[in-house]
Give the backbone structure.
Amino acid sequence: MAYAVETRDLTRVFAGKKRRFRRKRAASEGDEQLGPVTALDRVSIQIREGELFGLLGPNGAGKTTLIKILATLLLPTSGQAFVAGHDVTKDPFPIRQRINMVSGGETSGYGLLTTRENVWMFSQFYGVPSKVAKQRIDELMHVFGLWDKRDAKVRLISSGQRQKMNMIRGFVTDPDILFLDEPTLGLDVNAARTVRDYVMNWVGRERGKTVLLTTHYMAEADEMCDRIAIIDKGKILACDTPEALKRMIHTQTTFRLEVDPLRDTSTFQGMDGVVNFSLKDDASKNRTELTFILEDEAPVAEILSAITAQGAKVHALRKTEPTLEDVFISMVGRGFE
Amino acid sequence: MNEVSARRSDLAFRIALNLRSIRGRAYPRIIGANREPSWIFFEAVLPLLTIAAYVFIYRAIAANQIVNANAETAARILANTNALVASVVLGGAMVAFWLNVLWSMASQLYWEKEIGNLQLYMMAPMNRMALLGGMAIGGVFMTSVRAISTLVAGVLVFGVVFQVADPLMLLAVFFVTLVALYGLGMFFASLYLLWGREAWNVSALLEEPIFFSSGFYFPLGGLFNYGGWGSVVGIVGSIIPAGLGLDALRQLTLGQTAFGGKFWVLSAPVELEILLVLAIGFLVLARYALAYLELLAKREGKLTSRHQ
């Protein structure tokens, strides 16, 4: 079986900051920021050719670190990573010929150049003949709705338009493997829809094209990906199709409650029948949203009693179909935010 | 991967890839120089103020000396002053290249990292020297606008007269000086990759002292005439290729006999040979330094720290 991407026990540890003059204070206060950080912890995944594979996890989970290693920009501390069958540490040239990467919120390019010139410039670093590059750029400008801005200087366009330009930069080199790191970050609904549709069509239409997508948007991962790996604190917690992941908690029940802010949530932790729960504060409404993953519906009454016992009101209660976030909550006991 | 994704990696492809990369990276600088008319104005006009300051000081000193001098001495003082003014104009033109090397070559990879371009460059299959080469060629083109305008203004405003006896030699010295200067810039760019924000301070530190030690506004040989510390400063300044390059250019445009032939460091052909060695040395150093420092940056996560 040919894998587009394969990692074996991939680990990356960042050494942490060296603050010579503050080491003593930091050590005495237990400042964890200064110590080594394990961004990836023995990650093993296989992504098949032609697959749209998602990495789903909260900020700081290790998604970007994994992509940077696969893009030959970062060396692993231990373990191995192969892209298109080549080792990222030993044989980067053939990998670089076949890949490209687009990150959300990217500010790359030069403000003095037009959008078209910027994309052309990056295409030259991959050896794409100018004529071919310009033809592709024009096509992609139409697809992504940037044709009207083709001759606008990059410093004068909006961040959303800039992100569209970055997407075009990613496709203009005709990569076999495309790394998309939060590609719809900062895009409006329509632009995000265009990006998602194009990526899905590209993988479906072109033979052997592979996408590794990182996102923390559940719906995006659910809609786009053939398979998803859920990652948290550098570890892969689960890896399967979105349907199979949701089936993992199919026997469980998901309830969402909107309540007044609570003083204490520790009472929910040991409650019988509660698999896990997460809470998210909505400061604008002065309310808290609770998500419970329950073995069955039995604990609902006890949960409501515990809330009202604190003098808090329950404003909404609904039973919902399991989402990928519920899978995550079920595994780690917190949401993505 | 399957046959659909088979990619070329033969020598012809690699040469074409790197030539396209050089052109691609040079493009923003060449175009950028023309897109901002205000830049052209500031680049061309403001440096003239510094040159004018030196010219007026030299002329004022000469005027003071001429007052009590006889005709023969006065003629010698005037000739020396004119040679000094021409030296200042030439130095002012070369300052543009030195500043470009410091701020647009040496510090450039640091700035590229800040705006998010560096990781895209390092992820591309092009040779890293093609990236630096593109930066250098674009920089030379961009800076030539300032250098040429400084020379033209020097001739028109200050009445400088150049006497070029050996134009081929002059071109060779100028070309090799630029290659050596930009080779040094490429080498610095590699070092600055790891220094981060400190690169800014190093560039600032290297500006004024090099103007002095490399003799941008006076003949470098003047430092050697002092002996002792003057020679030490002059030797250190000669490591920066602009020092010897300027000395040779002045000899070739003012004549060996200018300043009574006392202020030249070495003869122009010898200086050309040294410059050639410096050019090759800096390019080789840049090539290996960049490869090593890229590896180190990948190990320490410094190519990508912006988005971590």
Q: What stands out?
A: The interface with chain A takes residues 1-2, 4-5, 7, 9, 13, 16-17, 20-21, 23-25, 27-28, 31-32, 35-36, 115-117, 119-126, 131, 295, 298-301, 303-304, 307-308 of chain B (CB under 8 Å). Chain B has a mean pLDDT of 88. Residues 16-300 of chain B form one domain.
